[in-house]
Amino acid sequence: MSSSSSSQLELSPPLLFTPSRHQSLLPAFASLHISCITSPPNPILTFLPPVTPAKTKEIDTWWQGRFNEVLEGTRHILFVATLPKEGEEIRIAGVCMLSTPKSETGPHRGFVEKFMVDPEFRGRGVGTGIMRMVEAVALEKGAWLLMLDTDVGSLGEGIYRRMGYIEYGRIPEYDVWSKTGELKTEIFFYKKLAQSEEGKESVTGRKKQDVNELR
């Protein structure tokens, strides 16, 4: 599908993944993953191209593992999907995950992972909208300290900085970049939602309403 036709597709608001309702979308999530790693700027997202049938199966299995973690209550998947017309397939325009592993010493911590926006849907506020909903869900779960990491120069880096995430460190030669094969530097960020000025407007004030709308 061309970018011009994609720009005409209506998109859902950010949605909270529910296994009983959304399990059938696994191929669409895998397709988004493949689209991201094979398109500029080739973000680092666990798998490297080329994407063979065997690797496609690996990616499907990887996503099923994430769905299983949702059932366990340790992962929350936020996504935006297309609202297809009759006869069209649903596409995932963007996704981000919130990991909240069980920890008696860190129940207030959450980890933002696997932020992806389909190249054909960039520039429509998909990424920012998903990140705001991630923060809303995190606050509902009591995870007011969020941490994440991304490679230098990624599209996500700019969004994280604009949303008030604070860089606290870098590790050189952290991940292999598929575009050149070089080892890229990883940047680590954190954000305290309870103390965020932005959160008063875009997260704290809306979180109950927004999360309820997902149910």
UniProtKB/TrEMBL annotation:
Coiled-coil annotated residue ranges, if any: none
N-acetyltransferase domain: residues covered: 32-182
Domain of life: Eukaryota
InterPro entries to which the protein is assigned, alphabetical: Acyl_CoA_acyltransferase (IPR016181), GNAT_dom (IPR000182)
GO molecular function: acyltransferase activity, transferring groups other than amino-acyl groups
Stated name of the protein: N-acetyltransferase domain-containing protein
